Amino acid sequence: MSTRRDLDRLSVDWITLELMRVAYATRGGFLAVRDPRAVVWWYVIGALAPWFTYDVGVLAVLFAAALVAALAARIGPLLLGLFLLGIVGDLVYLLVMLLILREDPAAVGTLVLPVLKLGTVSLVSMAAFASLDPEKISDALLAMRAPEILGFAVSYGYRMIPVLVDEFRTIVDGHRLRGAPPRGPGLLGWRLVVRLATILVRSFYPLILNTAKRTRTTVEALETRGFTAAGSVGGAGRALRLAHLRFTVADGALLTATLAVVTLAYWTGGIM
Amino acid sequence: MPAADDGPRGAAPAIEVRNLTFRYPGAERDTLRGVDLTIAAGDFVAVVGGNGSGKTTLAKTFNGLVPHFWNGDLSGSVRVHGRGTRKRSVAELASEVGFVFQDFGNQLVRPTVRDDVAYAPLNLGRADWRERADAAVAGLGLEPIADTFTWQLSGGQQHLTALAGALALAPRILVVDEPAAEVDPARAAEIYEHLVRLNERGTTVVVVEHHAELIARYARSVVLVDDGVVRWHLPTAEAMARREDLESADVPAPQVVEIARALAPGSPLPLTVDDCVAALALLADPLLTPPAEAAASRDAALPRRSTEAGSGPESGSRSGFGGASDGLRNRAGIASLRDVSHGYLTIDGPRSTVVDGLSLDLFDDDRVALVGSNGAGKSTLLTLLAGLALPRAGTVTVDGRDTREVSAPELAGTVCYLVQHPEEMFLQDSVAADVAMFPRGRRVAGADELVARVLDRMDLTGVADRDGRLLSGGQQRRATLAIALAMRPRLLLLDEPTASLDLRSRDDVIGLLADLAEHIRCTVVATHDMQLVAEWATRVVVLDGGRIIADTTPAALFADDAVLARARLVPPQAAQVGRRLGLSPVPRGVAELVARLGGAPAEAASPAPDVLSRPAESGAAIAGNVAGTVAGGKEAAR
């Protein structure tokens, strides 16, 4: 057997860490310093903007602006890589379509539209959520009168990511070590693929049971720490928690500038 | 609330339980059966009891989780500072009764330490939540890690964070369920020191605990819960004398009590090592060398094997002892690490170094205990040996194969690695299927008989069809050991096999480990449990900062203050007492200590290959020390 490398495990480590970096906005960026409500509104504007036009020019400008915003928000190599992978796939698809539909270039134009629209929305989403840590998201949701439970779910969901990843890895390792080893890779490695898929499915049951066991304590602890009481004390907890939020002039400027960029994009596209 | 219910709060006991009966919804029998208990304000109470005795349920009645969260059948009353808990919500009670759970890691729900500590005061709408959180963080010395993500903390830090989270509400009563279950002895002592400080400032502290040594040292009174009722509530000294009661509750008396009982019957029972040494000194045994003199002579005679900080990769076994061992021992090696370094990516970017230029050889018949403080690199070393991780530098050879050349599944037939949390080993829906997973997957001939034999041997036939996750802690350990046994490995690696087990299950696991020796050529256990080290290991490898700082025998380790301090280890009490009395080598268990001091003859079962006959007279003590040194040196040459 050829020499093993530690890529398998290291890359899992790297992906986990990268996820955490994104989740907790450790890289900073122009949106990370803004009031979370402004970021959410920014996201709403950016995500809605591409849906009111069919003009390739407008969409291209919006796409470019979104790309710049995503880079400025420091979304990190993992998200960017995944995004590029998706875009490259789309481009290959377009190229094939171009060959087939040589007669009718306008049809290709209509195929570009959804790619640009979805690409723009993806970039804006990544920029916004890579800049908001779970606390900011739940604060923003709370400030916008979303139910308390929603904000908590976001925050607790993030909290569980590293726990789940760790648990999942231990379980997959257990399957790899104790389960039946594959008899050779098979044609195109199909046996390995089947084995991997089987392990993933079989890991689900222990993973969920173990997590459920953990959360039992969490639910009790939440009770003792006043989670359900937070809603019943006349919103005092909410006011306290949101006291630190400040919607400043800079936040207003950000939203104004964003609206200006969107308007500009529509104007250059000649739709207005 | 009726006026009478409020009462004069200063005078009311902290907790008053009257005729309390409780049955969990759907349970077949009552968990609590007529409990009567009064805990005075300002007391430091240890609640003891066997598994399933109802002690945790009782603790949960103090803060209203029973019956508000667990609304089973409840009769009787619980009053906290004179006011009944039935009409008050859990959240309301939280300002009076702080609660730290046994699996405290799951109690933390916010991303950073400071957020988590501030969580309860925020929820309850306390305007001064920030000051409260800061005070709680400062009170436990958590400022340096206040902005760390909770999932990055070590177990000890997580526990302190959970404690701070409870203290942020400034409760007058604090309930802590098994504070010492998952941390090393030094950290357990640290947590207790914090509790003592809180208690001195007027907080009533209730701990659920089964480490008699900690109870004896810190608690003021002890409550014994047995089968759903409180048997007695006594001052600690009196409680410790009720040996049979304690043992029936899986709380064997502290070693110092056993020692004093054997050697100084009739004297008041000691609660600490100091008391015990003093009591024995009163006997004025002519056989004992004055401790100071003996210590001096031993220190002079003992070779300094532990390398000091910063001695480079040439530390531990490789430099002096690895080489010598080849000549001294003709036992075959099973695994070796050469200049191995390993680390992990961190969230801030740079790679951490967890194992740093480490070299180690493992031999047949070795029972190796891998000790060191949290984060010293124990678990990483185990994953490297199991081939789950490949070293960033250096080579790991197991059974003649470089782990880089073999895949981890191929290596699994040779090395078995049991992870710390047993539930992560249960991949199937029954214990039998889990045990059978490896032999069936590998198409081992006679797999079925093998599984049946293993289940029988590990006394698991009765629970073979049950899901491993639903077993008790001790049974779960048994089941994971059965899984390992069915894999028939040559090298067995265990991570913290005795953590969070009650003492009876722990002794059970230690016994099983000793039994496994005939089937497994070499066993390596990463552990904080010094009693496991003392009773089971023949070799101790002490890690600190990813390097080996000592590779020696348990007895020699327990005599080496520098290494003990650096690795934050606390020897068992018998070893401490023996050491203070100038015995060398240091005795490992009570039986050995008693035998050497001329008490009742020790049971032959005591696993102490390097016991020397006790020096016949005081002049011979030094000769004994020298002999001990020779024996110790030979052991150390592994």
Automatic annotation (TrEMBL), chain B:
GO terms for molecular function: ATP binding. Residues 15-252, 335-570 form the ABC transporter domain. It comes from the Bacteria. CDD domains: ABC_cobalt_CbiO_domain1 (cd03225). Keywords: ATP-binding, Nucleotide-binding, Transport. Gene3D superfamilies: P-loop containing nucleotide triphosphate hydrolases. Residues 294-325 are annotated as: Disordered. It holds the Pfam family ABC_tran. Belongs to the ABC transporter superfamily. PANTHER family: ENERGY-COUPLING FACTOR TRANSPORTER ATP-BINDING PROTEIN ECFA1, HEAVY METAL TRANSPORTER. This is ATP-binding cassette domain-containing protein.
